[in-house]
Design goal:
Two copies of one chain form a homodimer. By secondary structure, chain A is of the alpha/beta class. Chain A is 41% helix and 14% strand. Chain A has three domains: 61 residues, Winged helix-like DNA-binding domain superfamily/Winged helix DNA-binding domain (Arc Repressor Mutant, subunit A), CATH 1.10.10.10; 127 residues, Alpha-Beta Complex (Aspartate Aminotransferase, domain 1); 238 residues, 3-Layer(aba) Sandwich (Aspartate Aminotransferase, domain 2). In chain A, helix 1 packs across helix 3, helix 7 packs across helix 11 and helix 13 packs parallel to helix 15.
């Protein structure tokens, strides 16, 4: 028995094993004897070594195979640190609003309405119809299905005053959700290193998209009456920005709806500075005691880039939104969308159009507005009763959230931690500020699951506040 | 009758009309009389003026309304030219491969397989099931549905040799199509101004994504045997690039499949330079006479970023793909995806998983491979017979395309124009070169509609070539 020869065979087989697939069968002992010019005993010794090393296993009467069980090596990706360097912009981690909810907690943190507020039957029947249609197998034009473009153009056109030219279907670009629209608009109309004015506080997803686009965020303070036009004009002058991102209707997180007079004032400032207003009409379907009128309805000179999403009001599974823009701006945005994702699933577009053109959609929206009102009032009342130190900035006329100011000195992250231990998830307000928060806030979503638990949730918040060192 | 007063009323009403909605009813004559302190005749005169100007219309016995017919003004968006400046990178217009096809032409230009090559019944039944499932109303985790992550990880794991640690489900990020993956990978792992090595010719969508990301494209020549590893090493040295984009299996457009030995050689070069190989396995389901083995199967040190799409083989309406990456690179890509689109529709993810886990999917793929082979041979034979001056570089072992070299001096754009006039759409090869084309090429897709027309299409191409001035 030649030991050297046995280890030579083992080494040869190890090499072969390293490139073969687990479960592959080894050559028979007879073949190995021939291949290596060794005795059967030497071959058997080599196989025994490999068996002990966990690389192969023998099934008597069947054969010898590479073991499927793999030995996990500790991974070392250190080389990537050099290859990747520091990121150009450090994108913050995912927001509290995207956290999924365990079953046994009270959830006031979410960014989406509960599924019981969605038009479930409409969605399922529209999707079933779309599954049978051409839409299941075809590719739509890059800017979207023409019928859906028309629907979005008509919706805005219907509230456009007589003296203003309404948008045409070709001004509309269909998006796979409005987050994609924010990314494209910030990239295409501002770009790396360019300034972007944003209301503050504002939607965390917009802050995230701005970070990704590498733009320079310039916060413009907003309150229950919206941003101050003089402050806005000053920000435009100081920064030479060409872009202002805002949510004139039921802003997330504050719930603010701009007074009608402010629409014209902001448009005037934007026009004077040869700039764009990026109007995020995310809550268009969530009016409670007022109706949202887009600022975009008053502009036909391409100053307003209008974002309208169906994701939150229809279903998170039907990610369809639109951006309405005119002139070269629209071309820039479309080119960016083309490079980013080429087109939006025709199945989702067809289902979305089906849903919003059903008479039952109007009925659903009326019921939704009522339910949102009931839920809003229930949460506001519960807070007044059980958490009197939580101050509701103002009760919003629409949207999904209460924006709540806490006593000065409150540590909101400690508070969120204390609440969670007691079974309540809330979203610290810090995530909605592009710079330092101006005070301790939390955002409470009244559109989440199980409104019957709102009083219990308010009680937890009240107790947690009472135990704050402040 | 005081004319001055009449025009004052008209001016007041014009102002109101400019902000009101078309179809809105004007106050009654009696109300206007009271409001303006004028006589009924003066009010009537004012209304007549506005009627003549086309702003209002009176329906006798009903009332006076703002006219719904709008006078379109010629739009002037000139101010945007100053606001937008020149684009940072000029993104090229949409590729020929995305053009839709009129009914009565022979189409060899498309980038997608014809719908008769898709698993129609599987798709429709999976979508119908998904429409009834939770997936129709819920939001999935940012990285994707865990079951679908597992499927992608298992697929690659099944061909990973025994000595290599296979990917885990958490290495997988689900994408809304692989175009989005290319954009994110180029942005996250290279970024503005950084070099990116690419095979040349290569997929036009990857060139587009690179332009959008603002990276510096460095072409590395490839041929029927794939890229030369020495040339690749030289490009890494000269540019200090950290990223090489390639399609080792059935490259688009050339159809090249790298020889097995090249896998290890390229990996070696990539490792030596502390770099990433971005492996676009777009044609994984389109093998004809060979099986595609990903280079990624041989890497467990995070050097290969692996892109695998289901869009082309399942359905363009089910835009689902995955990127498999390990280490910090995976975190960078996930952060970019979060900022870009947050998540992929759970409906599409659920349907995709349903389809690829049906036994009928395997059966479909076997039939598809046969059909692709038949179509490939039919087109190749037709070209040899009817367009002998069109030289098929090499008959590919998989994929959807023939890459055809034309006689030197051929004007491919003139040729494409001549063919289109005669009823044949072809894609000029220029779109697949990140720099100047190295010769006159066209890409002919044999997976498009109506293969019975291939001989007629080849005849048109042959005649157009015969009439070229060369």
């Amino acid at each position: 028995m030649n030991d050297g020869s046995s280890s030579r065979i083992a080494a040869g087989l190890r090499k072969w094993i390293a490139t073969a697939v687990p479960g592959a069968r080894l050559p028979s002992t007879r073949e190995l004897v021939a291949q290596y010019g060794a005795s059967p005993v030497t071959v058997q010794n080599a196989l025994r070594t490999l068996t002990v090393q966990g690389l192969i296993e023998t099934h008597p009467g069947v054969g010898t195979f590479i073991r499927a069980v793999r030995t996990a090596r500790p991974a070392d990706y250190g080389w990537q640190t050099a290859a990747l360097r520091s990121p150009r912009t450090r994108i913050q981690s995912v927001s509290t609003a995207l956290r999924s909810t365990p079953n046994d907690v009270i959830a006031l943190h979410a960014g989406y309405p509960d599924r019981e507020l969605l038009p479930g039957r409409l969605i399922r029947s529209a999707l079933t119809r779309a599954a049978r249609a051409d839409a299941a197998l075809t590719r739509p034009p890059a800017a979207g299905l023409p019928e859906l473009q028309s629907w979005f153009a008509d919706e805005l056109g219907a509230v456009t005053p007589a003296g203003v030219t309404p948008p045409t279907p070709s001004d509309v670009i269909i998006l796979p959700g409005s987050q994609s629209g924010l990314s494209s608009v910030f990239r295409a109309l501002a770009g790396t290193g360019q300034p972007l004015l944003m209301e503050s506080p504002t939607y965390w997803g917009a802050i995230l998209a701005a970070q990704q686009a590498g733009v320079l965020v310039v916060p413009v303070p907003t309150g229950p009456a919206g941003p101050d036009p003089d402050e806005l004009a000053r920000a435009f002058r100081e920064t030479a920005a060409r872009l202002f991102y805002a949510q004139p209707n039921y802003a997330n997180p504050t719930g603010t709806q701009w007074p009608t007079a402010l629409h014209g004032q902001v448009l005037e400032v934007v026009r004077e500075h040869g700039a764009f207003l990026v109007e995020d009409d995310w809550a268009h379907d969530f009016g409670i005691t007022s109706t949202p009128t887009p600022v975009a309805a008053h502009d036909d000179r391409g100053h307003v880039v209008y974002l309208r999403s169906l994701t939150k009001s229809v279903s998170p599974a039907i990610r369809v939104a639109a951006v309405i823009a005119r002139g070269p701006a629209r071309e820039r945005i479309l080119a960016d969308r083309g490079a980013e994702s080429m087109y939006v699933s025709s199945l989702l577009q067809t289902a979305a159009l089906d849903i919003v053109t059903q008479p039952a959609w109007r009925t659903h929206l009326r019921g939704l507005h009522q339910q949102l009102g009931t839920r809003r009032d229930l949460l506001a009342t519960a807070l007044q009763e059980h958490a009197p130190r939580a101050d509701i900035d103002h009760v919003p006329a629409g949207g999904l959230n209460l924006w709540v100011r806490l006593p000065d000195g409150t540590d909101v992250h400690q508070l969120a931690y204390d609440c969670e231990k007691a079974g309540l998830i809330i979203a610290p307000g810090t995530e909605w500020f592009p710079a330092e928060p101006t005070g301790p806030f939390v955002r409470l979503n009244y559109a989440g699951p199980n409104p019957a638990a709102f009083p219990a949730g308010a009680r937890i918040l009240g107790q947690a506040l009472a135990h704050q060192p402040a």
